[in-house]
Design a protein that fits this description.
The structure is a single chain. The chain has 85 residues and is mainly alpha-helical. The chain is built from three helices and no strands. The longest helix is centred in the middle third of the chain and has 15 residues. The N and C termini lie far apart (37 Å). It comes from Eptatretus burgeri. This is OBG-type G domain-containing protein.
Amino acid sequence: MYPTYTQVDVHGFQLSYKTPFRSAFETVQLLTKELELYDEWLLNKPVILVINKLDLPGAKARCEELVQQLQHVQDCLLELNYRWI
């Protein structure tokens, strides 16, 4: 249906104390929405999320929070939609 040009597509983003306006979960959701708006077919492709710099202060707690949010996406999306209104 669609031509396949690459086997892997990598998207990266940086989360730091310098850009506290979005959480990691919000950024993942926004990137997912961007892919959906570009082509819904992309949502059917496998996804790998890589988290680095876990040695920074507070990073492990933020990572654990993200994992919990990703495991309960529907609940978190309801809260997210409420905050974005």
